[in-house]
From TrEMBL:
Keywords noted in UniProt: Membrane, Transmembrane, Transmembrane helix
Residue ranges annotated for the STAS domain, each copy included: 539-670
Protein name (record): Solute carrier family 26 member 10 isoform X1
Taxonomic lineage: Eukaryota, Metazoa, Chordata, Craniata, Vertebrata
GO biological process, one term: transmembrane transport
Amino acid sequence: MSGLPDARTCPGLGEASDLKFPLGAKFREPLTEARFQQLFGDAEQESDLLSEPRWSRLCRQWRRLPGACSGPGAWRLLLARLPPLRWLPHYRWRAWLLGDAVAGVTVGIVHVPQGMAFALLTSVPPVFGLYTSFFPVLIYTLLGTGRHLSTGTFAVLSLMTGSAVERLVPEPLGGNLSEIEREQLDVQRVGAAAALAFGSGALMLGMFALQLGVLSTFLSEPVVKALTSGAALHVLVSQLPSLLGLPLPRQIGCFALFKTLAAVLTALPRSSPAELTISALSLALLVPVKELNVRFRDKLPTPIPGEIVMVLLASVLCFTSSLDTRYNVQIVGLLPGGFPQPRLPNLAELPRILVDSLPIALVAFAVSASLASIYADKYSYTIDSNQELLAHGVSNLISSLFSCFPNSATLATTSLLVDAGGNTQLAGLFSCIVVLSVLLWLGPFFYYLPKAVLACINISSMRQMFFQMQELPQLWRISRMDFAVWMVTWVAVVILSVDLGLAIGVVFSMMTVICRTQRVQCLALGLAEGTELYRPLRESHKLRKVPGLCILSYPAPLYFGTRGQFRRTLEQHLGLGEGGKEAPKTDGPPDAVAEPVRVVVLDCSGLTFADVAGAREVVQLASRCRDAGIHLLLAQCNASVLGTLTQAGLLNRVTPEQLFVSVQDAAAHALERLVRGQEQQEGNPGGAGLYSRSHETTGPKTCTVWV
């Protein structure tokens, strides 16, 4: 470079390879992996690093684990499994207690009507929504790590559970059931919903035992948002019969949304004017209140409890006007006081419900984990994903014994908890007190509550999910692939069903990842003069490539799906074909004559993992390079990849001296090898070496160059 007149050069490699290095550069010997471990590795790793069997490494790591049976180990385990033991001693009573109390009471007031409303989505009597708003909240307070998370009934889970319950316990075709038959049907459906909660809780506990908290990452953000937005549309359509006072059977399975719309349009002339009026008035109150709470959240001391106000007004209106007897308005009826007797769900039904429990468990954990992570990042604390699995698994499992249906964190009440000033999980206890008071004493006040009001609460609670579609233009600008994942998931959820839409969204999301790895290209690297940096040659014509030396980077995992692409791209760059050596590919001008490759450096820093097929491909590459007279060097392999390659037999094809800690070290070794080879060809073994130290240079002493 013109700015480095006194820079050192690499003589002997021709005009195209007079590479210049920065002033004051410090040169050292190239470090192989084995040499690096001798200098900087642990004592246990200095010997047999590359050939140590994987089982012995696992045994060594196991011996390092602290004894779980010791006193300190047991205490650490108890602290990890009971989070209140960690945060309660540091609780700021004066600063946080009032905020937690106000937020808990506010959320508890919303839990009452919302729990009863979501029970209708689940196809069980309203009181079981109150049970689901009490027991899971209490259990999560003791086991959860999300300080700002509000658990309980969730519309998407209720919709999924209701569809499964309707399929497992269908209503008789006649439809005209007596009161006793209706009670028997409700008992069966409550048992099916509790069995689904038991199954999903058991699955989450199994995932916790296997430490599979990372599985939440398979439900990407576009998939979760498209799923909840599509499910919100299902909720809206499923509540239309209740809004209009139409006693229509619930549609389940694929195309349920369109079947429901067709049934509503057909039965529209039979709508109940009284229930239609109640629905219109309820929405006219609930929707503006929601907007006011959102727009003035910073100015309001606490959000306006529009739901509870609507419940009280509608109950008083129905009682004073006798709407249930005069106009046949459907009401909630008697809410049993106290708690149900704990009983184990029918275990004989578990094989039938496991297929439905799996997507419910995945959605419950994914939504809860993503919500907990959002607020943990916002308020600077950490979330243990595996502990969250334990908390939600135990919550669903134990609450199922009290006839609760599947539950998780909820979008609306979590946002409400934060806006109301909640600080810790202690707010959940105050929420439980509110629900408990309704179950023990205040239940009779909801006797005359019209079910149409509960349907309106269901619809108004979907506001936040519907507004997620506003993010689509930004998603289109950021990533077209994520936009496609969002749209495919949403269309599948709306047209087919929530369960199938979730499966299609996850599969399509994973396929996009696989397709991206398939499209990765192997990049030829060149040296930026005056630095030790290697960058793709296509990025700039100023990057230099040494004749006979090829430095390649493959920035993708190497597995059975990419081994073919890996083989083809390396054959092109190295000139390896089926019939022997060919003209190698060049990234220079089109009319440039490609030099035969004598040394190749494979940059493995982008290989995040390699499976058996990928490892064998590298071993075969080493054999083909050796047969073609090409010296293969591997650089910057992570420990996992290096272990897999070693077990696949790489050291039978190359020596440990061909494995380097960085591209710079491998390139330095390659240049020395090329210089020695050229000197031998010219008959001048005593000529200038690669790194001439005939004079001292001045300049900054902090730059270290490996070339």
